[in-house]
Amino acid sequence: MASARAFWRHVEDVGCLIEINHTPERFGAHVHLDGDPVIAPGDRVCVYGDPITVVPGGDMSVRRRARIERATALGRAWTRFRGRFEIAELFEVSFTTDPLTTRTAIEGQLQ
After folding, report:
1. How is the beta sheet containing 10-22 ordered, strand by strand?
2. How high is the pLDDT of residue 92?
3. Minimal CA–CA distance to 83: which of 73, 75, 93, 92?
4. Domain locations in the chain?
5. What is the predicted pLDDT for the residue at 14?
6. DSSP for residue 72
7. Helix, strand, or coil (residue 2)
8. What confidence category does residue 9 fall into, taking pLDDT thresholds of 50, 70 and 90?
9. Residue 66: exposed, middle, or buried by beta-carbon count in 10 A (0-12, 13-18, 19+)?
10. Per-residue pLDDT for 89 more than 80?
11. The model's pTM
């Protein structure tokens, strides 16, 4: 069976719990797959169901079905290879609310 997975994708259907927070303290969504399966490089997870809407200030938990599509051995190796080069894209991310030039100018005035 291991040799078959080298060339064809293996698919699993599992249940999942989706937790959505839309409050001033917490904002985000998390998917918890039943049975805590290991998701490896190249694997895909698709959650099925209608779109979920949470009003501002609310929290919601919803049960859904998810499909895990396991990567082939070649797909997993390709994902790892590509990941070595694509990690540099993360360095472009900024987690500030103001532009870098404004922040640098303000910091220069404080000194």
Report:
1. 27-33, 10-22, 58-70, 44-48
2. 54
3. 75
4. 2-110
5. 93
6. P
7. helix
8. confident
9. buried
10. no
11. 0.63
